[in-house]
């Protein structure tokens, strides 16, 4: 469902993107080319700051927002997702937040008030809260990363993890084309 927010902002969705009919895209959301938004995803850009300002939620080209993902932002803060990035099933991305390009965010992970640079991998059930994760870092499943985390203890993304991330992004790009071709026929 595509709908306006109370301020009247309507999502802008590239014609080449696929948004599952069960997803909710609300307000000042920009969905770029060849993006896949899966079933029951909720992307809401509807809160404003004290001055009535709101920044957009931007989903970069060739990225995928999988089943049950929730994206929202406190007081109209910006959320950006780079290109060729995968946000896996039931993850929560709560702004302010920026996620770079070629990033993988695993199942049930939570991102809040953070910046994750290009080519990072955050595995399932991890939490990244209140910190900046430089490019190429790997966060293990169930790990919590915050401002007190010593980043020197985190590993760099392995070739295997990078290839997995790229495969997920490529697979979901194929789904965009497939679903667009069948127009969600039953």
Please describe the topology of this protein.
Elements: E1 2-3, E2 12-13, E3 18-19, E4 24-27, E5 29-31, E6 36-37, E7 42-45, E8 57-59, E9 64-65, E10 70-73, E11 79-81, E12 86-87, E13 92-99, E14 104-105, E15 110-116, E16 121-122, E17 127-129, E18 132-133, E19 138-139, E20 144-145, H1 159-182
Parallel strand pairs: 1-4, 2-5, 3-6, 4-7, 5-8, 6-9, 7-10, 8-11, 9-12, 10-13, 11-13, 12-14, 13-15, 14-16, 15-17, 15-18, 16-19, 17-20
Q: What would your notes on this structure say?
A:
- The protein has one domain (2-182): 3 Solenoid (UDP N-Acetylglucosamine Acyltransferase, domain 1), CATH 2.160.10.10.
- It is globular and about 45 Å long.
- The strands form 2 sheets. Strands 1, 2, 4, 5, 7, 8, 10, 11, 13, 15, 17, 18 and 20 form a 13-stranded parallel sheet that branches. A 7-stranded parallel sheet has the order 3-6-9-12-14-16-19.
- By secondary structure, it is mostly beta strands.
- The longest helix is centred in the last third of the chain and has 24 residues, at 159-182.
- It has one helix spanning 159-182; strands at residues 2-3, 12-13, 18-19, 24-27, 29-31, 36-37, 42-45, 57-59, 64-65, 70-73, 79-81, 86-87, 92-99, 104-105, 110-116, 121-122, 127-129, 132-133, 138-139, 144-145.
């Amino acid at each position: 469902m595509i709908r306006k927010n109370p301020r009247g902002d309507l999502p802008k969705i590239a014609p080449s993107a696929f948004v599952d009919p069960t997803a909710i895209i609300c307000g000042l959301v920009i969905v770029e080319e060849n993006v896949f938004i899966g079933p029951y995803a909720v992307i809401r850009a509807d809160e404003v700051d004290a001055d009535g300002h709101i920044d957009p939620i931007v989903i970069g080209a060739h990225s995928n927002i999988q089943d049950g993902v929730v994206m929202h932002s406190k007081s109209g803060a910006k959320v950006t997702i780079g290109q060729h990035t995968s946000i896996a099933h039931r993850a929560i991305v709560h702004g302010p937040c920026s996620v770079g390009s070629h990033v993988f965010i695993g199942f049930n992970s939570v991102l809040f008030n953070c910046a994750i640079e290009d080519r990072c991998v955050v595995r399932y059930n991890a939490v990244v809260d209140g910190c900046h994760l430089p490019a190429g870092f790997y966060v293990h499943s169930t790990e919590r990363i915050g401002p007190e985390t010593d980043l020197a203890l985190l590993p760099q993304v392995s070739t295997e993890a990078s290839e997995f991330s790229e495969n997920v992004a490529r697979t979901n790009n194929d789904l965009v084309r497939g679903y667009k071709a069948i127009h969600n026929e039953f």
